[in-house]
Amino acid sequence: MRNIPALTWREINATFFSPLAYVVLTLYLFFSGFFFYLILDASRQATMTGLMGILTFLFLVSIPLLTMRLMSEEYRSGTIESLMTAPITDAEVILGKYFGSMIFFIFMLLPTLLYVVILKRFGNPDLGPIFASYLGLLLMGAMFIALGLFCSTLTRNQIVAGVLGIVSLLIIWVLGAVGERMTGDFAPIVRYIGTQQHVQSFSSGRIAFRDAFYFLSFAAFWLFLSVRVLESKRWR
Amino acid sequence: MIHVDQLTKQYGPTLAVDRISFDVARGEIVGFLGPNGAGKTTTMRILTCYMPATSGTASIAGHDVFRDSLSVRRHVGYLPEGVPLYQEMRVEEYLRHRAWIKRVPAADRARRVEYVMERCDLKAMRRRLIGSLSKGYRQRVGLAEALVHDPPVLILDEPTIGLDPNQIRHVRALIRDLGNDHTILLSTHILPEVEMVCKRVIIINGGRVVFQESLDTIAAQRAGGTRLVVELRAPAANAVAVVKDVPGVLHVVADNAQPVVRLDVEVKPGADVREEVFQRAVRNGWTLRELRTEQPSLEDIFVRLTAKEEA
Ligand SMILES: Nc1ncnc2c1ncn2[C@@H]1O[C@H](COP(=O)(O)OP(=O)(O)OP(=O)(O)O)[C@@H](O)[C@H]1O
Ligand SMILES: [Mg+2]
Questions:
Q1: Which is higher by pLDDT, B298 or A61?
Q2: What is the rounded average pLDDT of the residues B288-292?
Q3: Distance (Å) from the C-alpha of residue B147 to the closest C-alpha of chain A?
Q4: Which of A33, A46, A99, B221 would staple A125 via disulfide (CB 3.0–4.6 Å)?
Q5: A206 lies in which domain range?
Q6: For ligand 1, atom 22, which residue shows the shortest CA distance?
Q7: Is the peptide bond before B259 cis (omega within 30 degrees of 0)?
């Protein structure tokens, strides 16, 4: 695991070099600011609950756009050959890229702290739920990025990886609602797999081990599968 | 240093490498030759742990490429075919990144990168984006990258492709020089290059080793000549009879021209019959107009071994 910092460093560099990252970042900041204003203007309440839902949705679209490059680009350009013949393990390759994206994701979250500052200045927000919401967003990002990265390990085509990522995230997002309407033995499982209720749990101010476990275990699951797919690429 | 035993690689139905075995000793520079699609790149990819073999084993510096792949990768510098590089990085930045990944200690990194840039003539390009470099410079970055962790074994897949004549010379000299303290396996399609740089050649065709010989041996065989061209002012029939009689001569073909006859003489490998031919011509009172050995070049050997199977 000693090589992860080197790989993460290069990944962050590459992200800041890619025009797509800036496009995504700009659109994301624009929409989050826009909705922050709209919600505040309509509700006149110093909370972030409404915005958290919006942010979640924005990340659902923008994270796959950021992660689709990760492995697909290496396959397409052939640099995967230098990567996989360097004295690093396949797990290090995946984790290096994963942490690179995590850091960029945290970087994306930082500007939204400005909204908290604004609320604090002009109102009296309850900071507990806001803190919980941020923790929720972080955990959610950890899972979304792992899934996006997994999609990228599957194909050399970035667009395919991106679309696959967005579609998969949408599916697990709506599974919660599907579970609500289902009856039978599988209903609780489907509800559990659905992302929505776990996010909502955080943004209503509850920090539950069960929800944290949901995000972290799925993140680990997709990362594990990514390593497996990468390993299997050797056996062509 | 490199040990390959019965290595086989199958891509689905395609048999790319078929029970290849060879060894490369410490400090040797070996040329790995073969026509397009012979399996050179595939063999090198197995040796560098990019992909596992279907069957057979290989080891580098005593480490098995499959079971102990990380140690192998630490001992090998690899220049892949096509030289894939991160386009968005700068030359020096890329080399430092690779040095970091390859566990060059932090204190030595700057010095090593400086050294390989010096060796590969890259200093003027250190701040350039790799994506904006010409093919030849990218090739040099790839070579510098292979060298950066000072590996005992270098595996170079067509290292001089795309270089200008000056650079080809430069890189050949560099490889020859590196041969002093590295073991090198290099593939190329430029045969004179092999003669200039390598100590030994391995020719593969259709995934099999078809020829394996040290260049010294090839040169020694050549010195004796395996073919002789003789031009005499003599009656054709007599000339053939006399030359055929020389010990060591296997076969004589005459062009039957008058009054000067040209003989194409096949000689037993290693035998040198030139002086005897001369003596006999003198004894018969014939004027010897030409006497020369026709040397089979590496190219002849290559073409003979690899063109045959396709036909
Ligand atoms: N990824 C792959 N999938 C399927 N077949 C492959 C693959 N890579 C190579 N082959 C096949 O394996 C055989 C050997 O290819 P290889 O690239 O090793 O040849 P080579 O000796 O390096 O040729 P060249 O001189 O053109 O570089 C060829 O028949 C090729 O078509
Ligand atoms: Mg090749």
A1: A61
A2: 88
A3: 12
A4: A46
A5: 4-234
A6: B41
A7: yes
For the record, the structure tokens of B201 come out as 């050649």
Q: Of A8, A82, A236, which to mutate for an interface test with B (greatest number of B Cβ within 10 Å)? A: A82
In chain A, the number of structural domains is 1
Ligand 2 centre to CA of B82 (Å) is: 9
d(C-alpha A87, C-alpha B255), whole Å: 63
Q: Please say if the pLDDT value at position A133 is more than 90.
A: no
Structure tokens at B111: 């010095």
Mutate to test the interface with A, among B17, B50, B54, B92 (most CBs of A within 10 A): B50
Asked whether the beta carbons of B5 and B47 are under 8 A apart, the reply is no
Residue B191 amino acid letter? L
Closest CA to B253 of A75, A46, A181, B243: B243
Q: Tokens standing for A236?
A: 């062509």
| SS3 assignment, position A175 | helix
Written as one letter, the residue type at A138 is: L
Average pLDDT (B236-252) is 85
Interval A60-99: pLDDT, tens? 999 999 999 999 999 999 999 999 999 999 999 999 999 9
Q: How far apart are CA B213 and CA B199, in angstroms?
A: 9
Render pLDDT for B13-62 as a digit per residue (tens, 0 to 9).
Answer: 889 999 999 999 998 999 999 999 899 999 999 999 999 999 999 999 99
Chain B hits for A235, CB-CB cut-off 8 Å, are 51-52
Contact at 8 Å (CB) between A136 and A199? Answer: yes
- Report the share of chain A in percent with pLDDT over 70: 100
- Average confidence (pLDDT) over A150-164: 95
Ligand nearest to the Cα of B17, by number: 1
β-pair type (B29-33, B183-187): parallel
Residue B84 has its nearest CB partner, among A9, A77, A236, at: A77
Looking at the whole model, is its pTM more than 0.80?
Answer: yes
B278 touches chain A (CB under 8 A): no
A3 vs B contacts (CB less than 8 Å): 100-101, 103
Q: Give whichever of A123-132, A159-168, B132-141, B267-276 has the largest mean pLDDT.
A: A159-168
